[in-house]
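Why does this matter for the project? Reviewers at the last site visit asked to see concrete outputs rather than summary tables. In response, this paragraph embeds two records directly. Each consists of the residue sequence and, immediately after it, the corresponding structure tokens. Nothing has been edited or filtered.
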Amino acid sequence: MLQPVIGFYSDRHPKPYALAMGMGFTLLGMLLLSRAGSFAMVLAATSLVGLGSSVFHPESSRMARAASGGRHGFAQSFFQVGGNFGSALGPLLAAFIVLRLGQSSIAWFSVAALVAMALLVRVGSWYKGSGAMHAARRTASARHDAVSSRQVVIALVILLALLFSKFIYLASLGSYYTFYLISRFGLSVRSAQIHLFVFLAAVAAGTIIGGPVGDRIGRRQVILTSILGVLPFTLALPYANLFWTRVLTVIIGMVLASAFSVIVVYAQELMPGRVGMIAGLFFGLAFGISGIGAAALGALADRTDIFYVYRLCSYLPAIGVLALWLPRLDTFTPHLEQVSPVVPELEPAAE
């Protein structure tokens, strides 16, 4: 919920060291989580982690775009795949470390946040000296003449609807896939966690693939294919045996995940000069939809069963048909912010 607000603010008042500060909140949240002895402490710890994300994502998305050299889709995908890879590792770390060593072992993972803070201070120094801090102001007047304000609003509404279908479906797998495997196929907790890791790794692979493909063939085509194109596979999943469940979830994860980075870049091109706000809006909604969707699906599963939830969610990608009404941005290229790498001048060679 905070990410769009922070993105809106940082578009006007860039903060080069905000990334390190956001990671500091994450570090505190991890340490508190390792010692949490009540539900209230768990909420406080996860709120700190969430606050760190809200500070981190809008500004880091702008930095990734500034460093892209014009390959905006690739840069956004490469940036996001770090988070996807971390999410994929989560179930393995839970299965092999936390389950074995207990809650206190979570504190060891805060070392990663500490290392990240040191790296992000360096990134902030580059950002401050590169000229990228004020690029959003210089490009605020760059607009697509072929796309009216009304079309921009309609396109953003369509993109938000696509995010809804994508992340509600991913929430059904990310939150309840292990329960589904245990209930339907009798797998052990550890085996189910490994299956979840495979699915999340496929999501990471789809994320890194989607951006570069969007740079080459057009973002609208990738959005349409990744959301609507996954529908046959989601419809088949509730009726598949264990082997085909593994295959289908890998396909679903890769295809569906390829859309998000492309959607973010497409929306940023709709609204040049609002890179942080758009990143904050879409990242914030992605996390919010996933959290609320997971809770709603859990309540529905309690009232019915997990199999009913998967059958119901299998129709969500049909919302992808709305992508047909997205305006085409590939026929013209606006002047967007670019930051050339700083190359030191060399002394002339002595004769």
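We now turn to the second protein, recorded in exactly the same manner.
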Amino acid sequence: MISSDFYKVYESAGKKADGLVNLYCWAHVRRHFVRAGDANPVQLKYWTGAWLERIRDLYAAHDELMTAWNEAAAPWDEEKAAARLDDAHAAWGEAIAAIDEARKKQTAAPGLQEPAKKALATLDREWDGLTAHRDYPMVSLDNNAAERAIRGPVVTRKNARGSRNGDSARLAAVIWTVTATAQMAGLNVLTYLTAYLDECGRNGGKPLTGPALERFLPWNASPEDLRTWARPPPTG
């Protein structure tokens, strides 16, 4: 799965790679409707408001679907969990059906303002990737969390004017993967990396291997190590 905006590279990958599914970002779709309203607030104020309500309802239905799916994965009561998941799928279906009906009616209607036409055209063009979320309730309707996570690397790359060659780009990717993994585990990156490098120093200045390295994988780390690495580094 690729949860993304409508960048053509992602779209092309989804079409060419077997088994790859595009899940397009509803926050990006929402932005198109907001911009349409901003472009013509007099005539499109209520039109935009109605679309934002439909998208809000879809988010609420997806939140319930995600919760029901998680419960069904490890049910305390299989019958109730299955019933809740069925109800959540039905609610999601109603919310997306309301959006589908509105987009088709409005696209066919004469006299719609140009900014609204553009927003609806985007919705229509990316429809398959937007509705695919129904089958992947474990994934958010938008990629906001991913975009926030890569903001640091992107800003650093721009400030450094890029990696300049393939080797340094691959090295940067490895480093950012390690730091992002540490952050996702709730660790303080400086504390965590300092502990690792100190251990490398005690290993004769060589990289760790085997159990010594596995200790630093957050999913293998002891609760005590996780607590220690989550603290800020000492000052002074």
